[in-house]
Structures are given as structure tokens and as C-alpha cells.
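SAMPLE LOG
Freezer: B-3
Tube label: C17
Construct: single chain, 75 aa
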Amino acid sequence: MSTESVGHLRCPSCGGRDIRHSLQNGIRDYIMRFFRRQPYRCRRCRHRFYRYTAPKGRGAEQLQDAGSEHEPKAD
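STRUCTURE (predicted):
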């Protein structure tokens, strides 16, 4: 379990910013992981929630390349 705070997230329950990654356990977490959802927990109110995680590595590069095809070119 990571003790590192994830400062850019806010708890959907209390609005706190003291968020950490939560351990994955059970079938629900396995299914959510399939849809790229990562579990987090608020240290303030102990609420557990999921957030989307962007692909890393080659997949992220392909997404960036796909987005740049539709940008207008400067003359």
C-alpha cells in the first residue's frame, strides 16, 4: 500500500485532498481494473472511490498521435 498522497484528487464525499491509492481486493476491483479504474481512499473520511487512469507507454503515445491528426496546421 502506498502512503503517498495524491494531491490533485478530491474526495467525492467530503471534498478533502488527502487521498491515497487503495489496495485492490475482490471481484469488483478486478472488474474496475479492466475498465482502467483505480481505487483510492480519503484519509479524512475513509471514503473509497474509483478514478480513471490513463494508459501508459505505447498506448498513450498512440492516443496523442491520434489527437494530433485533427489539429489545424499553422501556415
